[in-house]
Protein 1
Amino acid sequence: MKVYKLACFSIALIYPLLLTADVHIVDQKNKEFSTNELRVKVGDEIRFTNQDPFFHNIFSLSDTMFFDLGSYPQGEFRSIKVKQPGVIEVECAIHPSMNMKIIVEE
Amino acid sequence: MASGIYLKGLFLQPFLLTLLLLPELISVLYASEDSDSITYFEPGHPSLQQWLLPVPPITTAANAVEQLQLGKLLFFDPRLSANGNFACSTCHNPSLGWSDGLKTAIGQQGISLNRATPSLINVAYNKIFMWDGRQSNLESQVLGVMGAEHEMNADYEKLLIFLSQNSTYRRLFAKAFPGKHINKETLAAAIAQFERTIISKNTPFDRWIAGESAAMSADQVAGFQVFINKTKGNCASCHHPPNFTDDGFHNIGLKSFASSNPDLGRYNIKPIKISKGAFKTPPLRGIGLTAPYFHDGSAATLTDVIDHYTQGGEVTTNIDPEMKKLSLSKIEKKQLKLFLEALTTTTDSYPVPILP
Ligand SMILES: [Cu+2]
């Protein structure tokens, strides 16, 4: 019973987070992102999942958000959480034809 | 009662969320199965068709034939350079696999340049240009090299006067670019159009892919398996179908990266850690003709190339994650080399034009 209560309490705590922050999944497949443009809200998370049998990389040189999440193999993902509105150009340093835009709104 | 409903809703939410994400989960699962799909090593098998080169994008422009005929003359004409002694073909020599046979290129006045001359074989399929990818199309690549001080060092003003005063060139430009002037744009377009005709797509490998079983030997087919197999050669991870390149950038652990002032390659264009010492993956059709190999020309033969990869590179600082020690037997290494040789056609003599 105690465990049950504890579980309910933890879920109740997480619940508001589930409601507000969305998780967007962007696939990396056949040396392409699954979308060229993504609209998200401040606080959202974007996951980049590598589905190719070779490494991909994720980075951005944008002023809105500057990051380099390194390279990772098939089956893994890297994610970012957007903190401010603006446009983020996302690229793969290994495959220059891979690029997309994230538009972050308030 | 109220709390009961609340609890029910609470459990329902994660459930719904999972339900919403289900298609994503399914697609992730299927994709990984998909990308590991089996390749069947039988000539003409559908799983091999991804290696067939598409029709090259040469004839898309109006007057394409006139343009490439003009471009061929310009390509071989040393009068395009400042000193009148240096043509595109000086470094991109058709007798040497459209490269120069040198470790690194030699520019005007014998000045040694940093990097090897890339071959022009199948450049039409290329998506990004130069070893560091600083040019995004063939036309800008042509103008960049022609204008570079230690390369052709062209004085465009003088050059355009020369071309418009030469009656043959004037006539050919008018035919290739009706209504347009002789300028940098039309000059580069003509040369690029010619370069796009340098195609290798009838190698023994291509004929085997198309279904001609005798085109490759059993050893060469075995070498192709080593090439593709992720636990063997793992070569196709970067030398992707159909043109044996991922149009990407990798640090392959060359000895020169350990020098005191190493060539940082792609890092000069995209300052991201992984790009440090990374260079463009060259396509492989025609490699039998383009020795020496690598951007620094440090591998004299294909055997040297295979040895380099087998030991997982020499310098492991910032090395590409795809690079690792390979467990290849002596026979597998030999088969891999024989396969690489199947990517080249025996060369016919190439007629060089008489300049106007
Ligand atoms: Cu990539």
Protein 2
Amino acid sequence: MTGSEQSRNSADAVEPRGPRPKPFFTPKKIMIYSTLIFFSLYFLFPLYIMVVTSLKTMPEIRFGNIFALPGQINFDAWARAWTSACTGLTCQGLSPGFWNSVKITIPSTIVSIFIAAVNGYALVNWRFKGADFFFSVLIFGSFIPYQVMIYPLVIITRELGIFGSLQAVILIHTIFGMPILTLLFRNYFSALPQELFKAARVDGAGFWRIFFEIMLPMSLPIFVVAIILQVTGIWNDFLFGVIFAGTQNYPMTVQLNNIVNSAQGTPEYNVNMAATVLTGMVPLIIYFVSGKLFVRGVAAGAVKG
Amino acid sequence: MKKTFLHNLPAKIAAIPMIATVLIVFIGCTIWTVYYSFTNSRLLPTGKFVGFDQYERLFATSRWNISVTNLLTYGSMSLVLTLSLGFLLAVLMDQKIRFESAFRTIMLYPFALSFIVTGLVWQWIMNPTLGLQGTMRRLGWESFTFDWIANPRMVLFALLIAGLWQGVGFCMILMLAGLRGVDEEIWKAARVDGIPTWRTYISIVLPMMRGVLVTAVVLIGSGIVRLYDLVVALTNGGPGISSEVPAKYVINYMFGGGNIGQGLAAATMMLLTVLIIVIPWAYLEFGGKGRRT
């Protein structure tokens, strides 16, 4: 029986019970909330500046103040950023970059997750000699800076005839996504009851049948985490896109950097900020929609850096 | 012999991508890079073996030395501040506060953004004429100065502001998970003994979170060694060469300088740095006790 029930039940209970209710504004609380609010302002400030600047006109930016709200909401800069800003070579705005990023992200995510899922499944349920060795090297290898492996990979993709194409970027994302995704799936599959797998074996199901008919349907939650991890990671990538994709296939991050950092003539800050907002939009939407799953994804994927 | 090879054949076939990645990329490419860093490769990686020549030239190049100094300076500040701010925020978030999830959402969203976006936003805020400094001056505070991005002596702090903005939230999430994993009983015992809260955090809870702390250090550390996109977007190494970093040196020499040997030698130095961070950690975590991930 809880305290409140007791006091309601017994008529003579007039003495206050429980701890004295604390006033809301204790010095400690004021300190905690003011520190948290201070940091929140630091974290929110750039988002505010980015959005506000993108809605202003250039004269407003030149003579105004960076904090001020736009006199009139104006989406011209967004349209320019999307369709006509110059990315160094051409002046078609960010839209080609957006579609390149889509063309890179979707297949890269699918291929890398599929391969990693099969790896994890083979590592848990079909152990073979040497599997642990390869897995350990894979995890250890994820700490090696990309710069160490990138030049020989350029040679390999060139020899394969895919350098400067979408296939090359997909291959690179699959390779460097493999350690963490394999770890993710390996841990997930090893937590599933082994009896399921054994029963299917007894019924005569083979490697692929068990994978497609039992393991995949059961691993939806981990797939969602892996998808969040990969989509945000690949969307935000810059280095692989700039080196392996080829000029025609530059992802959005590369084009964004070209718009802002190599623009000729007077820089149009409103267009730059609109382009920045547009590029950040996809991962932000994923972040706000997926909530806790995003945290799970990045916590798992932090190894990838 | 044949039987052991055929045993589990479908699994072995399915694992070919993983085996190939390990052998060709993680082992093969790394050895390739280290090997060719001892050659005089220039436009093409075919030169002849020249011993430590590339390394001698590397350490005689001021741009490399500045890169390394920058990495050490930025890295130590970033590591200390990310950890301490992450811990401070996690402790505050752990005080049964209201709006916890709102605060958490605000602190973590920068982590979802790419370093390019982070760099460009802060580049705009720190723009000396139109950004924060210009605004303050136009508002009448004539002497207000915030030109770190254009000041060779301060530019690393500009990088730090943007880097912390992106990464502190994630460190906070890790630390908060660590704090929540500490047994309630510890707190009760500390309270009974009359130990003040802040001392409980520093001398009891913090040592108990050793696992989380070590993980955070390794993650932040290997992230710092890789620092590249943020520099490209925020300062592009400038002003002059005052904010160059090793990862950028490698890429510039490999793909822009026609001097592959230098790039490979610099990459090998990056590898060495990461090994110095990761090997002791891997040994402590997995070596002695035979524990697995």
Protein 3
Amino acid sequence: MAEPPRRTPHLRRDGTWVGASVPRREDPRLLAGRGRFVDDIVLPGMLHAQFVRSTEAHAEIVSVDLSEVRAVPGVVAAYSATDLHLRDVTALLDRPPHEFVPTAMPVLARDRVRYVGEPVAIVVARDPYAVEDGVEAAIVEYAPLQPVVSDTAALAEGAPLVHAEAPRNTLVDVSLFATEGIDTIFDEAHTVVEVHTKTGRQNALPLETRGVVADWDDRDEQLRVQTCSQVPHQVRTVLAQCVGLDEKQVRVTVPDMGGGFGQKCVVGREEIAAAAVALRLRKPVKWIEDRRDALTAAFLAREQRYAVRAAFSAEGEFLALDADVVCDMGAYSCYPFTAGIEPLMASAEMPGVYKLPAYRVRGRAVTTNKAPTAPYRGVSRPQYVMVVERVFEKAARALGIDAVELRRRNVITVFPYKGVNNITYDPGSYLESLDLCEQTLRDEGWFSRRSEENRVIGIGFSCFSERTGYGSGAFAQRRMQVVPGFDISEIRMDLDGTVSVTTGTLSHGQSHETTMAQIVADRLGLPYDRVKIVQGDTDRITYGWGSFASRSITIGGSAVAAASVKLGDQLREIAAHLLEADVDSAELDGAGGVRVGDRSLSFADIADVAYLKAHLLPKGVGPGLSATASFDVGGDGTFSNATHGVVVELDPGTGGVEILRYVCVEDCGVAIHPQVVEGQARGGIAQGIAGALFEQVTYDDAGQPLAPSFMEYKVPTAAEIPDVRIEHLETPCAFTESGAKGAGEGGTIGAPAAVLNAVNDALRHTGVELDDTPVPREAIFRALEKA
Amino acid sequence: MIQLIELTVNGERHDLAIEPRRTLVDVLRHDLGLTGTHVGCEHGICGACTVLVDGAPARACLLFAAQVEGSEIRTVESLAEPDGTLNDLQQCFSEHHGLQCGFCTPGMLMLAEGYLAEEPEATKEEIREVVASNLCRCTGYQTIVEAIDDCASRRRAAFQDQLDRSTA
Ligand code: FES
Ligand code: FES
């Protein structure tokens, strides 16, 4: 078949690939319907799995009767926990018992169910229709217990316990910071403001639901697991432990993935159960989560409650912050992050972009009878940024200072800045982004429109930074038992002078096949389409940490760059020898070769020697062309930053919020592919707006999910998400090989705060202030009715 | 119960023996191996399964295969040339970065293909309204709308060009 014609890649004027929005190498297959997602995989004799799921939020399992299931035509097997004997999944923090209580998550519920949708049994059948019939024939008898369906109920005196080992339903209780003398500061402060907020439970909601295809390969003596996971190596580790295989007996690969957003960066019990059944039956087994399960039983996120006080001087100096954070983590601690992921993130980073001398925080994770939670794009930062930004709005009103001006007086401007939270912030453009964002909206005339008659218009801002380079040092401070952070990359040049490069990170929409190749292309001086990026295969890639926390380009990209540089050195050494010159005089020529003076050798010439004429290699240089490099971010990592500005109009007739304008000024250091960076920002902003205005997972008093389909769970469409104007600032990162900081999460982090502030600005004349998300329409309606 | 049906997909005729409850999207994906069409919800909201039925966009998860006997079905696999050359709409998606993970993309493409055939004069606002019938979790929609709008104006320009030449 002829190569499909491609647009000519445009290099930057200086000839570099980094910084150019070249055509994505992922696009042709995805646009032609030739992507390979997990549900596209078909293996001979493949069986289909589904789960019998708990109908109760909290109950003892009295009995599980699968005899009728097994009688359903097409059903091949059905197993409960007692049939499969799998080891539990337990995520650990290395913290004392009063700070952290470990809880085990069985792969299938054993004696007790803790949320509606918890898997109780797995059924496999010859086709996906028969397996549904089979699931319906299961008879499970429950002895219901009183469910705990809110964080306040969980913490109440005498509340039923979700896990017997966790008193007061508290899994994590940490007080990371308490500046001495903070109470005196509050007592003596000119102004003290309080903010109480609650953010709704949300579903990260990748459009492709979770899924796995597993089979035992006799020739490789391996359990092969093809799964849509952001963390293939961690799936291998946990799976091997649960089923009792060596790591080498498990191979996890990841096909194309329809999004993850954090929901797929933890190890799910369903993928383990399906793989265990494939192992037991020695037959391929596929599980594809249906949307109902994805909405009710998949990992959720975001439900947090904050009570904060903040002290300011008369001149508007931010003096102290005292915060109490409670995160409703649902029924189980996720692997590997644990239930600590949200309270620890909020506690460690809450002061954000502002100078602050005194800080005290308590962060708790409580367990409830709701689907368990996992990280979701931004992890706690959308919430604490919202809280801090509300603090600034309230303080501005109390002090009679313009809110933007108040921020201006307090943002960190001298770098590196060592925060009260013990974090050292690397250079960013906190003030510049704020100024540019405000000026942009001013220039577009929005400030004068704010007072238009008969319209309820408001403008809101949010300023934030986000740690994107979480190296193992930063994660070690969390005291996780497994410490993510580094990445390892291997590069190999083949005979024709093209290269394959591995990365332990994994793209699920972020364009690594393109952006990583751009980084390599610059380091070696060869076109990006001569670079193949290898990701998502535990057999081919040294232990990696996958993609989350905006780490791919910062850390994975740096490892890829370092390996490329090493290979470049090898190429130079061999070329210098062949040309009988000094190594120092040999340089990569930027066109797929090495130059010494006016003579040059192409990479293919050098590879020819390295592989086919090894006797010509310099002494001490072995045959082959490959290199391995690892990268870790030292110190406290790197921080991307941005300011978001939003203009909203409220509808007095319905309480609805319409976004009239959205401006995002972002700084993620060097942008490898500006179009991709903008795509990440826009997609993130859409998810942030979704959390601010639309999406919420709700339950009734019995713990039954109230949003089991897209009819109830309102995902915003093109009609609700506005066009976003993006302005780039560039403060190159000093720690990473490419100068890049991360860009995956910022949009989601900034949007809720900016939207909420804009709504409150529009409500200013009513005296009503709203601090919860999703913003309740009725509250807006009532406030405007009264005004 | 098994039923014999005859389906025409992307110009090719297929004979199938299936259960009457089998949905069109399952038949396309699993019986015919046309996995380009995706499933995001199976309840008619996300639009990932959008295909053309007699030229009009339809949710393949809401149709039984048996219902569309005698219709012309088109899936995303029909858009590119057999040699892999992307059509103008697909190229516009790529140029505008109208896709990230690519999961919603086949549905978006078929929605746009059907709509533009019907409404070649569509304005950007009208295109946005139509895009609102499908969900995308990655892009924030803006670049999808821009890609379709760009394709529409290119098609109009090409058509005008043709007219000018034929009248010249
Ligand atoms: S799968 Fe058909 S509309 Fe979602
Ligand atoms: S590109 Fe991922 S859902 Fe649209």
